[in-house]
Amino acid sequence: MLAHPMFDGMFRLLIGLALALLALTLAGCDDKQAKKDKPERPVLVESLRYAAASPQRSFVGTIRPRIETDIGFRVTGKVAQRLVEVGQTVDVGQPLATLDQTDLKLQAEQAEAEYSAAKGVLAQAIASENRAKELRGKGWSTEAQMDQARAAADEARARFARAERSVELTRNSLSYATLNADTRGVVTAALIDAGQVVAAGQAAFRIARFGEKEAVVAIPETLIGRARQGQAHVSLWSEPGKIHVANLREISPIADPATRTYLAKFSLPDADDGIALGMTATLTLSDPATDRVARLPLSALFNQGGSPSVYVVDSSGQVTLTPVAVKAYESESVVIGDGLQDGAKVVVLGVQKLDPTEKVRVVSSLAF
Predict the structure, then answer these.
(1) Closest CA to 72 of 62, 86, 82, 63
(2) CA 55 – CA 294 distance, rounded (Å)
(3) At residue 27, does pLDDT exceed 60?
(4) Which of 22, 118, 205, 250 lies 20 to 30 A from 240 at CA?
(5) Residue 271: C-alpha distances to residues 31, 214, 239 (Å)
């Protein structure tokens, strides 16, 4: 009678243990199933790209001729004709404009008359000198009379030379009444017109010589060193895909007072006729040699006391913690020097919550 209740209690205890084991087993299965059905964590990634440590800088410039000259009349006068227009091509010796020649012709005629008079006086003075020599040789004249005749002849010779030079000057002045081109080029500016009175040396035309062309740009003072030592190339807005080599020829020693930039002129040795004067160009400056680095947001860096690392995502969604060589820290980014391949997909947000054993789902932008 006493044994039966004892066995009954043990039986109930065994049943309780069995039920407890069964509950634990079912709970473990539920945990595995929940873990298996857990969705992949979305991560924001960015493709890593290596580029020059010092980025290229571009500036807008204008194509100009290397030599552009202002020419004008060498005498004063009233413009009678303007024979060329802006944009016209001119050759050496081609007439560009003429002055009224009335006064110049009168001056030339006056000089011719003085020349004729001086020539007659010289002939008379020479004859008198010769007679004085002859009389002096025979003893019929004094030494004072001989000196007087010689002085008169010398004066006549000087007046004749002066009249001769005056004729040459007036002839030259008459030829200067026609302004001729002294080089082959294109007229870029016409500063006079018919009826205008101009002074000697006043600019009348601006002519750009055919030959080497150059790109003129304004360079900030922080990039003067790169402009002098770096590499430059030019592309035209009309032909953006064509690149022209550019060489620094001249840089202004004084900054522009308004923009605080320096005017730089880059010659284009391979410029062809397709590059017209006045075209708009883009000048790009780059360092001659520089390291290639990549930039990532600071949030992509994972560091827990060891070497800096980042999480790289492969095509299957698996993340790998990869050490990187950090060259510098910037305000919002980190400069990577080595450790990653170009084009690698790097997690840039939430790296502290990632587990290398779990797979992730890549997203390219945040969505709210």
Answers:
(1) 82
(2) 11
(3) no
(4) 250
(5) 75, 9, 13
- HSE at residue 279, side-chain half, CA atoms within 13 A, is 22
Q: What is residue 283's predicted lDDT score, i.e. its pLDDT? A: 92
Provide the pLDDT for residue 114. 93
Q: What is the pLDDT of residue 14?
A: 62
Give yes or no for residue 282 having a pLDDT over 90. Answer: yes
Average pLDDT over residues 291-317: 84
pLDDT value of position 226: 83
pTM for this prediction? 0.57
Structure confidence at residue 2 (pLDDT): 44
pLDDT value at residue 1: 43
What does each C-alpha distance from 11 to 4, 8, 16, 19, 25 come to in angstroms?
11, 5, 9, 12, 21
How far lies 58's CA from each of 78, 218, 231, 249, in Å?
A: 48, 11, 12, 18
